[in-house]
Amino acid sequence: MKQFLTGVLAIVMGAAGSHASDYAITSPSGNLRATVSAGDSLTVAMSDAGGNTLLAPSTIALKWTDGNEWGRGCRIKSARKVSADDSIASPFYKKSAVSDKYRGIILKMQGGYDVEFRIYDDGLAYRFVNSGGKSGEVAGEKAVYRLPSDCDMWVPYVRNRKKKVDAAFDDLFWNDMQNQYTRTPLSEIKHGRLMFTPLVADTGNGLLAFAEADVEAWPGMYLTRSGEENALEGVSAGRPAAIKPGGHNDVEHLVAARHPYIAKVDAARREMPWRAFIYADDACRLPESDMVYRLASPSRISDTSWIRPGKTAWEWWNDWGVYDVDFEAGINTPTYFKYIDFAAANGIEYVIMDEGWATKGANDLFDIVPDIDMDAILDRAAEKGVGIILWAGFRPIAENLEEVASRYAAKGVKGFKIDFLNRDDQMMAEEMYRIAEVCARHRLLVDFHGCCKPTGLQRTWPNVVNHEAVFGLEQMKWSKPDVDQITYDVTLPFIRSIAGPMDYTPGAMRNAVPGQYYPCRSNPMSQGTRCRQIAEMIVFDSPLMMMCDSPTNYEREAECTRFMASLPTVYDDTRTLEGKIGEYIILLRRDDEGNFYIGAMTDRQARDFSVPLGFLPEGDYTIEEFTDGMNARRQASDYLRRERGVNKDAIVDIRMAPGGGYAAKISRR
User: Fold this and answer.
1) What is the pTM of this model?
2) pLDDT value at position 7?
């Protein structure tokens, strides 16, 4: 990276002998300004070019168990300007390259630590650096983020799930980060409730998203309403002191006790995680955000040629639901042959073998159920050019990682979907990086399920192609009819997508308008229209995109299936054409062959848009469109497919029914 150190930074506020030293840094375009004040405490603030406060002076510190507190009683040894103007290759992402252009300062403090601040045109980030080689335990991280007013916010509350294990289990930090968003004024955020990031505040002068990046060997940060006015405060889980088996089929590591500190640090540990405040003058900029990706550590895989993103046929959502076949469907070899043959016929790169192929309760991934002939399945997949990805509970793979990875890689397995992690304390962060590294050594993909949100692991270990941490389509197997997935679908692209890829699993062929949906585990449906399901495969970021429905249903809907199966899962560029949090989104993608894709979704309100195609280069193109049918508001599966010629002077009319969607591919003739 082209990073420039340009000497000692002048103190721009305050005078010699004053109690605090204040520094100002301005973003490359001049649209944002950060002010850092180092005195009795360390604070950071951000404003726009007009002087409007986006982040009021916010106190940050790191407290050690030995009494040291970085960020308190600051004594500055030096202050250096830093800047960069570079491009980061991002081959398995929503863009092929990410801009890394910033200005910043590094404050070197007495006491053996630095604090680094960077300001980009789209926000501000900071981190502590262990420059003196200190080791010990970190008691806690102080982060009091002050907003300019009682802002309107979109927050994801942590769900209290402890009673699902046993009445005595009381770990507030045991959660899977699958939930919906609550829109609320800051002053009405419930005291004592934890929220995980990203979350978004409307400052009145732009949107501010709180996020974190490069959380390696460190606990994730939750936010809660502070006792101070108009402020949020950071909270992290203590490092586990005792672990016990438990949870879903005993495949989890539950925390039986926690230390009174959040992290152990050795002398070799230098950089702590980045804390980021992402600015958007318009909601449309949020789905495009690259802040988490750019702040993550660079890739540790020198040869990534074996990493193959793509789509996967998946059996768990549709309950192994093939029919019109001459065998009894279920967790057995003939059923998996059917999924493999379907994937091969439609150019789908993978088949997931989800929970059930290994004996439940045994916690032994080599104890395969009698109805599964794994060698025959792998041979069939290899013959057809389809990769097999195996589901694994966290405990059985983590406790025998090297043997599981090496033996299944040798058999031709392409990766693991690892489930029920359900924590993001320091120990779990260490485990996730360890799993990524071992799997990369054996050329295995990783899809983390039942896990925390991504914080840049997908850049550092690009074989990690997905994280769940989303209220995905699986929720429709059991959610009550009053659960509003439709509004959630047009909220998460502006918030959850900031963190990174998500395993939402779209593509349902059984669709229901509001009032017709009901939960059905064995024959599930989606809320909203058919075209919405197709659009989700364009709008949602997922390098490993699961197609959730049954091969039989897809074969009966060949037109939709062909289109979905042909979609890329990574792109050269991504732009938001129109959007409003919780209401609608129109996203534009471009692939490496010069094809363009439009995905649009609306909330429960019907909407019409006219989209000029001025983004097209000169030439003649064909557009293939899937639009809600005239009766989609009554029959959600009603759609219309159209194909016609267009050029850059054309306008596309998008008509969406309530809960509707629109999807299109534009290719050069």
Assistant:
1) 0.96
2) 37
